[in-house]
Amino acid sequence: MGDPLQKRLDQPFYSRIWRRACASRRRHPMSHAADQSNVLATEHLAKTYGDRAALDGVTVAVPRGRIVGLVGRNGSGKTTLLRSLQGLAAPTAGRAMLFGVDGLALGEAELARVGVVHQENRFVPWMTGRAHLDFTRSFYARWDAARERRLVEAFELDLTQRTGTMSPGAVQKLAIVTAVCHRPEAILLDEPAASLDPPSREALYSTLFELLREDEPAIMISSHQLDDIERSVDWILCLEKGRVVRDEALDSLQERYARWRVLPTADASALPAEFREGWIRSAVIEPRGALLVVEGADDAREAFEARHRVTVDAQPLRLSEMFKVWTNGGAR
């Protein structure tokens, strides 16, 4: 019967994509992202649709036990990145790897170790939730029936209902149960909480923490709900126009960024019209007070207060505020 992958690559479209990817690999030698200890990785990954670049030179690496919040504006490339890691989007250049295997060469052994929740989940409409889970279980030797029962109870999921008549929230819950009960080593979630009510969102993130304790998978969550992301992840990957603008531990970001409320001292009549310090990322200045977003400015605070005759009240910066700085280019 021949190799199914080779048959696929012999088609003109896939052959062209494969040649581009191979040429890119010759230009870009293997780096730390290609280290097989990383569960998820990309190397100089690019994907274009016509004249639009969905991804532009993305290199990331996610080891086991890390939970990554994938954030970015609409159209920044988040879904394309997740699809590339699953082998569902052939790269224009570079490569995406899962367990050290190129996304275009993934086989049953690799795919059986992955759990995925898509942005739009489609199930066989005439199947009940129970029938769907029973059918899915038959493909996985590691299916955890106890985990399934816990999640169905936590989500208050009615498995007697046909999937075609389920609410969007119930469909999302069923997709999450389906994605994690075979004890995957990599979990890719594209807006998993978009249709969930607050209690179900809480159950979702509690489940992810439980998975980390039990199995230590690599988890990547794409979401616009930045407050949930901030409470749940340990790493932030931010895309803007298909490029990586932040790839860093959340703790490190929280230590480096701050919001300063700046007030003039009693002997100063007003604040200056602008502040020129290079570590100021955004500023709203009025005569009697200013709000600054600063990066890496802890050691500069005393000198700043003395220079401008001001007092500074420093507060932690929320992820949602950092996100505005990253996606607005740090405009002041």
Describe the structure.
It is a single chain. This protein is an alpha/beta fold and 332 residues long. Helix content is 35%, strand content 28%. The protein is built from twelve helices and 14 strands. It has a six-stranded mixed beta sheet with strand order 6-7-8-3-9-10, with helices on both faces. A four-stranded antiparallel beta sheet has the order 2-1-4-5. Strand 9 and strand 10 form a beta hairpin. The longest helix has 18 residues, at 198-215.
Oligomer: single chain
**Fraction of residues in H or I helices:** 25-40%
List low-pLDDT spans: 1-31
Number of domain modules:
2
Mean pLDDT: 87
What structural class do helix, strand and pairing data support?
alpha/beta
Cα-atom radius of gyration: 23 Å
Count of alpha and pi helical runs: 12
**End-to-end Cα distance:** 62 Å
- Strand content is 25-35%
The appropriate CATH architecture of the largest domain is 3-Layer(aba) Sandwich
Largest sheet: 6 strands, mixed
Beta-strand segment tally? 14
Widest beta sheet: strand line-up: 6-7-8-3-9-10
CATH class of the largest domain: Alpha Beta
**Helix-strand pattern:** HHEEEHEEHEHHHEHEHEEHEEEHEH
The CATH topology annotation of the largest domain reads as Rossmann fold
**Bulk shape:** elongated
Q: CATH H level of the largest domain: which superfamily?
A: P-loop containing nucleotide triphosphate hydrolases
